[in-house]
Amino acid sequence: MINPKSYYFDIFQVDTPVLDRLTEEGLRSGGSYCDLFFENTTYGSLLLRDGAVTSGGNHVDFGVGIRVLAGEKTGYAYSESTSWADMAACARAAAQIASAPVDVSPYGTRNPSRGEPNPAADRYPVREPWRGVPMSTFLPFLQKLEADIKRRDTRIVKIIVNLAFQVSDILMYNSSKEFKWDTRPMGSVSVSVVFQQGTQTENKSTSRSFRCGAEMLSDALIEEMASEVVKGIDDRFAARRPKGGQMPVVMGAGASGILLHEAMGHAFEADFNRKGTSIFADKMGQQICPRGIQIIDDGTLAGNRGSLNFDDEGIPGQKTYMVEDGVLTSYLHDRISAAHYGVRPTGNGRRESFRYAPLPRMRATYMESGNAKADDLIASVSKGIYVDEFSNGQVQIGEGDFTFYVKSGYLIENGRLTQPVKDINIIGNGPEALAAMEGVADDLAVDPGAWTCGKEQSVPVSCGIPTVLIRSLTVGGE
Fold first, then answer.
1. pLDDT, tens digit (0-9, with 9 covering 90-100), for 284-297
2. SS3 84
3. Which DSSP string do the residues of 303-359 spell out, in sequence order?
């Protein structure tokens, strides 16, 4: 949502002359670039546990973060007040940290973005506001969702339904006189269900998260989530731990994209490469996976959890091809890494809030569809495993090694899905897994769940992938 500039000036009680004075204050000790990040965020939540409201409420976070850059030095300070005295003290603190006589660096401003935000190009308009609405207004939706889930399976013994939303007013300005403003909505609904069959229990959860207003709380969403959270529960009870070893792995479309995000996406973030800690630091322009594969980080998907009109440095959101036809063509850049590499920023400068300096971070990371059919990829495997839902994993950025826990999957025997499996790990190496991709299906799905990425800070992201066949990974089983 993009409001008039005056809306943001009124919230933060500033104007252009004040902002100019503030950036001048930040550069007083010799820095070459200063930017300001104002934020006013309203948070709300409501939790329903077994039919009873057990928690809920809302709060507001408000303040400004001021960053000063001088060569490789970054000074950062923030204030929870936007009075002139507090902001000026904050600017002076950031300036002192970064004080150094350095040559002026463009920090991504070779092609400054001075145009004003265009409401017609807004990627997340709001039809029904979250703000100013009593939390009790949303309770019937949660109750209806819970009732719909409960009627679908008699083995259900516990249901937790949670609604969370936030709306952030953002105003950005810098010493290059680039002005950007934005209001970012986010709504998330999550469900966790416990099933019991005899002495055995199984858990299943699902979530939906979008940059939009309360219009997302529809009957269609109830049907979709209720159906998904009970789907496949018979297979969960029947699942067994298979024998482990090296074998082909078919990753299902959608949520399997978390492996792409963790094992490859982080290693494409430019700060890791600028510092030489990424396995891909010396592979720019090289063939890193088979031809025909495109890997993208995208900030332009309408309503997507990871999308942005502008990143947290005021760079317009954009679609960035990291891998084109199997060749590594771009890292994910903020202003600092873009200046280091002599390229334009890619709109990946992100921060958790005004309390943090921005870092190169992903948005919506996915692989484009290929030409194969998912059924044909499965049929090509005589003995292997199909996985479609992961939970937590570990990744070593420098070596590229990863381990992921599989929540849901099946054995593949003679080209068919057979025994459901559980309690297994998928172990591999990012570059090796990319090179071992033997087939990419035509069924790309970007998962709509409430994914959050942690890298010193937490930011909302999304991920996706088509069905993909990897020639060999280690499956940790019996």
1. 999 999 999 999 99
2. helix
3. T-TT--SB-TTSPBP-EEEEEETTEE---B--HHHHHHHTS---S-EE-SSTTS--E
